[in-house]
Amino acid sequence: MGGEGSMMQMIHTLRNNKSMLNKRKDRRVVNTSISGKKLEFHNTSTEKDLLEIRLKLQKERKQKQVKTILVFCVFMFVLISVFIYFH
Protein backbone atom coordinates (compact mmCIF):
# COMPACT_ATOMS: atom_id res chain seq x y z
CA MET A 1 0.00 0.00 0.00
CA GLY A 2 1.07 3.55 -0.63
CA GLY A 3 1.80 6.11 2.07
CA GLU A 4 3.53 3.75 4.50
CA GLY A 5 6.73 5.77 4.41
CA SER A 6 4.96 9.00 5.26
CA MET A 7 3.10 7.29 8.12
CA MET A 8 6.39 6.01 9.53
CA GLN A 9 7.88 9.49 9.23
CA MET A 10 4.91 10.90 11.15
CA ILE A 11 5.33 8.28 13.88
CA HIS A 12 9.05 9.03 14.22
CA THR A 13 8.42 12.78 14.31
CA LEU A 14 5.79 12.43 17.04
CA ARG A 15 8.09 10.16 19.05
CA ASN A 16 10.98 12.64 18.76
CA ASN A 17 8.75 15.55 19.79
CA LYS A 18 7.51 13.59 22.80
CA SER A 19 11.06 12.74 23.89
CA MET A 20 12.06 16.41 23.63
CA LEU A 21 9.06 17.40 25.75
CA ASN A 22 10.07 14.98 28.49
CA LYS A 23 13.58 16.44 28.61
CA ARG A 24 12.18 19.95 28.95
CA LYS A 25 10.02 18.90 31.91
CA ASP A 26 13.02 17.33 33.62
CA ARG A 27 14.95 20.58 33.28
CA ARG A 28 12.22 22.51 35.09
CA VAL A 29 12.48 20.15 38.05
CA VAL A 30 16.26 20.64 38.25
CA ASN A 31 15.92 24.44 38.33
CA THR A 32 13.85 24.43 41.52
CA SER A 33 15.28 25.38 44.86
CA ILE A 34 17.89 22.89 46.03
CA SER A 35 17.88 23.91 49.66
CA GLY A 36 14.10 23.60 49.96
CA LYS A 37 13.93 26.70 52.16
CA LYS A 38 10.92 28.92 51.80
CA LEU A 39 11.67 32.50 50.82
CA GLU A 40 10.36 35.07 53.26
CA PHE A 41 10.13 38.80 52.70
CA HIS A 42 9.74 41.26 55.51
CA ASN A 43 7.60 44.28 54.72
CA THR A 44 9.64 47.32 55.73
CA SER A 45 7.96 49.89 53.48
CA THR A 46 5.64 52.53 54.83
CA GLU A 47 2.31 53.67 53.42
CA LYS A 48 4.04 56.75 52.05
CA ASP A 49 6.55 54.60 50.15
CA LEU A 50 3.78 52.44 48.74
CA LEU A 51 1.85 55.52 47.63
CA GLU A 52 4.93 56.93 45.88
CA ILE A 53 5.50 53.63 44.10
CA ARG A 54 1.86 53.43 43.06
CA LEU A 55 1.89 56.97 41.67
CA LYS A 56 5.14 56.34 39.84
CA LEU A 57 3.74 53.19 38.23
CA GLN A 58 0.55 54.99 37.23
CA LYS A 59 2.59 57.76 35.62
CA GLU A 60 4.74 55.27 33.70
CA ARG A 61 1.65 53.37 32.54
CA LYS A 62 0.02 56.58 31.32
CA GLN A 63 3.18 57.59 29.43
CA LYS A 64 3.35 54.18 27.78
CA GLN A 65 -0.31 54.40 26.79
CA VAL A 66 0.19 57.86 25.27
CA LYS A 67 3.20 56.62 23.29
CA THR A 68 1.24 53.62 22.03
CA ILE A 69 -1.67 55.79 20.91
CA LEU A 70 0.70 58.24 19.22
CA VAL A 71 2.50 55.48 17.30
CA PHE A 72 -0.85 53.99 16.27
CA CYS A 73 -2.10 57.37 15.01
CA VAL A 74 1.07 58.00 13.01
CA PHE A 75 0.85 54.51 11.51
CA MET A 76 -2.80 54.98 10.57
CA PHE A 77 -2.04 58.39 9.05
CA VAL A 78 0.73 56.90 6.89
CA LEU A 79 -1.45 53.95 5.91
CA ILE A 80 -4.41 56.15 4.94
CA SER A 81 -2.19 58.54 3.00
CA VAL A 82 -0.68 55.62 1.05
CA PHE A 83 -4.16 54.32 0.21
CA ILE A 84 -5.29 57.77 -0.93
CA TYR A 85 -2.12 58.24 -3.00
CA PHE A 86 -2.46 54.92 -4.86
CA HIS A 87 -6.25 55.07 -5.26
From TrEMBL:
Keyword presence, Transmembrane: yes
Domain of life the protein comes from: Bacteria
Residue spans crossing the bilayer: 66-86
Alphabetical UniProt keywords: Membrane, Transmembrane, Transmembrane helix
Official protein name in the record: Uncharacterized protein
